[in-house]
Design goal:
The structure holds two protein chains of two kinds. By secondary structure, chain A is an all-alpha fold. Chain A has helices at residues 10-20, 30-45. In chain A, helix 1 (10-20) crosses helix 2. Classes of the chains: A mainly alpha, B alpha/beta.
């Protein structure tokens, strides 16, 4: 993916991360992967 | 029961906790440790050492169990994911080794005016603005490698939590508290605890009630509704692998009138408790602040549905008003930290002889035991030994 990563753009950043980030376990479904990444950020936000 | 056999010990403790939590009479009253960061200095470490090193935190947690041997521990060194927030450039935690204290700096994610954005799209708001307000590194310069770095810190924290759960269960016979994700977070609690803080939340409630309602309704989508659906689809009945089937903490109600509580809090809370009751499950409900004015909402649930963990209320009064609920608590940190060993033992005996005589009592603390002065180690050690050895049949 060549699009410039800007973490402050929620939709695009999540889309790029769903392509680029290795969750450490298999996850082929992109929407589920996005949900897992969001869940991680939600955890951070609540700290 | 062979006390040197962790498996047998775990089953014994699970039965104690389940019997008491269901309002029944256990073989003896169980003891739930509600100690968090107090454990660090008690084990001889500085807060800064333990919070930034999982090997040290493991030693801290092991020390707590080996010294006091409670039947259950609410926390295995994971109360403060310090290394994760540090990786994000946070200054939320204020670690003060000199005074043996760790504080938490409240950083609201949003202003009152931004509630509309939360109502429109809470996930987008939290990602694009809430995270910016809380973490200094979350800005336009944040790279994918930065993201990988904080995700690695998150995985490290998760791995530590998993490791500690396994150690406590397999080496010490400490059962698991609840099943993973067996808790619910109401939108109103999310707004209060993480987005607006106490001052902003109080303003929001009065300034624009319809906007407040819209914001909490949207926030329910992040946590509350997925959790409720998971609860609804869980098998009915008590899962004897865990001490409780569900756990919830109540805090936002402390700044709400009963009318506001009935409008913004109760309808969502009731959906959870009704589901728990329908499924013949048992939940721990931690009511922070004064709980007395909320008893009216809990009095009609069947026995065995709710085990109330009280922060401020006298457990004898809770039992009198809510005989349908089991009780958790009874040993306030004020007593453990300031009274004599004999006074703590007298209090423990009184609790077991009265509330524990017919069951429905889990002895614990009124709040998370955090600071060195919250508790004298000799008081807690004496209390733990007493609970293990004393049974109502000796009355």
């Amino acid at each position: 993916m060549n699009e410039k990563f800007n973490v402050l753009n929620y939709e695009k950043a999540l889309d790029i991360l769903a392509e680029e980030l290795d969750l450490g376990y298999p996850m082929d479904d992109k929407e589920k992967k996005k949900a897992a990444i969001y869940s991680f950020i939600d955890f951070c936000a609540r700290q | 029961m062979n006390e040197s056999n962790p498996q047998q010990l775990e089953q014994y403790r699970l039965k104690l906790m389940r019997d008491a939590g269901s309002g029944n009479k256990p073989e003896r009253t169980p003891n739930l440790s509600f100690f968090v960061t107090w454990k660090i200095t008690d084990a001889g470490y500085k807060f800064s050492e333990a919070l930034s090193n999982y090997d040290i935190m493991e030693k801290v947690v092991r020390y707590h169990y080996e010294q006091y041997q409670p039947d259950m521990m609410a926390e295995f060194g994971t109360r403060n994911p310090y290394m994760l927030t540090e990786a994000l450039g946070s200054s939320n935690y204020v670690v003060d080794d000199e005074h043996a204290a760790v504080g938490y700096r409240e950083i609201p994610m949003a202003t009152h005016e931004q509630l509309k954005e939360i109502a429109d799209n809470p996930k987008k708001f939290i990602w694009e603005k809430g995270m910016v307000a809380k973490f200094s590194t979350w800005n336009e310069n944040f790279t994918i490698d930065d993201f990988r770095r904080i995700y690695a810190a998150y995985c490290g924290f998760g791995a530590f939590a998993g490791k500690m759960g396994k150690i406590m269960k397999e080496e010490y016979g400490i059962p698991s508290y609840t099943a993973p994700k067996a808790y619910c977070y109401l939108g109103v609690e999310y707004l209060f605890n993480h987005i607006r803080s106490i001052k902003g939340f109080s303003v929001d409630l009065r300034k624009d009630p319809s906007l407040f309602q819209a914001a909490i309704d949207s926030l329910q989508e992040i946590f509350y509704y997925p959790s409720l659906e998971a609860l609804k689809s869980a098998p009915a009945g008590k899962d004897m692998s865990y001490c409780f089937d569900y756990s919830m903490d109540m805090l936002a109600q402390t700044v709400m009138s009963n009318k506001q509580f009935e409008q913004y809090y109760l309808p969502y809370l009731e959906k959870v408790i009704n589901t728990i009751a329908d499924k013949n499950m048992t939940m721990r409900l931690f009511i922070q602040g004064n709980g007395e004015r909320f008893y009216q909402y809990l009095k009609d649930y069947p026995k065995g549905t709710i085990a109330i963990h009280s922060e401020h209320d006298d457990l004898l009064q809770v039992r009198k008003n809510l005989p349908n609920c089991a009780n958790i608590g009874g040993l306030p940190v004020f007593m453990l930290g300031n009274k004599s060993k004999q006074a703590c033992l007298d209090r423990t005996k009184l609790l077991i002889d009265t509330l524990g005589a017919d069951g429905g009592l889990i002895i614990s603390q009124d709040k998370q035991v955090s600071y060195k002065n919250d508790c004298k180690a000799e008081n807690y050690k004496a209390v733990c030994e007493f609970i293990r050895e004393y049974t109502p049949s000796q009355n």
